[in-house]
Amino acid sequence: MQVKKQRSSEDPQRDDMKKKPSCFSNIKIFLVAECALMLAQGTVGAYLVSVLTTLERRFNLQSADVGVIASSFEIGNLALILFVSYFGAKAHRPRLIGCGGIVMALGALLSALPEFLASQYKITDTWRKDLGRDVCSNTSKTDEPCGNRANTNMMYLLLIGAQVLLGIGATPVQPLGVSYIDDHVRKKDSSLYI
Predict the structure, then answer these.
(1) Which of 82, 100, 105, 119 is nearest to 162 (CA)?
(2) Cβ neighbours of residue 62 under 8 Å, at least 6 residues apart?
(3) What is the DSSP string of 74-115?
(4) Which of the 8 DSSP states describes residue 141?
(5) 138-165 per-residue burial string, b: 16 or more CB within 10 A, e: under 16
(6) Phi, psi (5° rounding) for residue 81?
(7) Of the candidates 68, 142, 76, 130, which has an alpha carbon nearest to the alpha carbon of residue 106?
(8) Closest to 105 (Cα-Cα) out of 17, 22, 37
(9) In whole angstroms, what is the distance from residue 163 CA to residue 112 CA?
C-alpha cells in the first residue's frame, strides 16, 4: 500500500491530468447535443412524411408499399428498445447516444440516396391515355417504361433499410438521454433540463 502512495506523490502531473475534466463533460453541452439529435430525428421524419406521395409516383409504388416504408422506422425502433433501455443503463450512455447519432446519420444519407441513384425525370410532350397508372402491369406493346422495374424494387428496399437504420439509431436518444440528464442535474433543475 505504501508503494502505491509513493507513486502517486512522485508523479504530480499524472494526478493533474486525471483530475482535469474535459470541456465536453458538461451537462449543458450534452443537452445541446441531445437537442440537436432530436431535432435531426424529427426533421428527417417530417421530411419523409412530406415526400411519401412523391416517392409513390416517382418509383411507381402502391399505397401499401409506402406504408411499409413509413412504418419501417418504428420496426427498427421496436427491435432494439428493450435491449437499449435495459443494457444502456449499465453502459456509458453518452457513447451509446453518440453511436445512435452516427447510425441515424447513415440512415438519413441512405434515405436520400434514391434521389441520386434513380434516373432523372423525362418530360414528354404527348400523354398516352391507353396506359394506366401502373404501366408495368399493363400488357402494352412497348416495354420501354418497364425497363427500370428492378431499379424501383432496389430503391424500395433501400428506403426500407434507411428507415430501419433511422429507427435503430434513434432508439438510444430519447430514453438514455432523459435518464442521463436526470442523473446528472439537481433534482429541482431536472424538469427544466428535460
Answers:
(1) 105
(2) 56
(3) HHHHHHHHHHHHHHHTTS-HHHHHHHHHHHHHHHHHHHHHHH
(4) S
(5) eeeeeeebeebeeebeebbeebbbbbbb
(6) -65, -40
(7) 76
(8) 37
(9) 11
Q: Count of CB atoms within 10 A of residue 135's CB?
A: 16
The alpha carbon of residue 72 and the mean position of all alpha carbons in its chain are separated, in whole angstroms, by 11
Place of cell 417504361: 145
**Distance, CA of 191 to CA of 194 (rounded, Å):** 5
pTM confidence score: 0.71
Please list the pLDDT of the chain residue by residue as tens digits (194 residues): 455 545 545 555 555 556 666 666 777 888 888 889 889 888 988 888 888 888 888 888 888 898 999 899 999 999 888 888 888 878 888 888 889 999 999 999 998 888 787 776 665 655 555 554 544 544 444 444 555 555 678 888 999 999 999 999 988 888 888 777 777 777 777 777 77
